[in-house]
Design a protein that fits this description.
The chain is α+β, with helices and mostly antiparallel strands. 39% of the residues lie in helices and 18% in strands. It has a seven-stranded mixed β-sheet.
Length: 191
Amino acid sequence: MLRTFAFAAASTLLAASQALAQTPPAASDPAAAAAPPAATAAPAAVIITPNPSADIVANLKASGQFTTFLKAADASGLTPVLQKPGALTVFVPTDAAFAAVPADTMANLMKPENAAMLQQAVAYHIVNTKLLPAQVTGHAATPVPSVINKPITVDGSSTPIKVNDANVLQAGAPASNGVIYVIDKVLMAPQ
């Protein structure tokens, strides 16, 4: 009997606390009371739902938001690099980031005769080591060599993390052969 009463009391208390959490506090300002409740901040979007047993390319394909990067990797011959076993870090611009690049620039890069330039542009987004978020977050801006040996500045002292002048939208999504950092801009290698 005591156990049933304790369970019923706990259930009632839980239901009451959930109802209170959903009830906005009374406003002392009449204008505020008439205003609609403020929207709550939405949780950060998950762009990649990581599959740690799948390679980088498979994770990007599953997301559906990296078609331009994947086309560029195919055209530049770098898809096999992103599929082989290893410990890579890839800073991957979303399709929206590529949409900000002038269309004629992208069309020119995708021409077969510009495959070498395209390969350099895609390879600049790849680092030949696994950079975990714990190694980046809270750390000052540090140059990290890309696979073409041109530095990428990773700044974990800001929120969000910055990679050159791009914001990291999702950090360190694990793949079987490395990690993926989703970024909001296409990186440009220093000349």
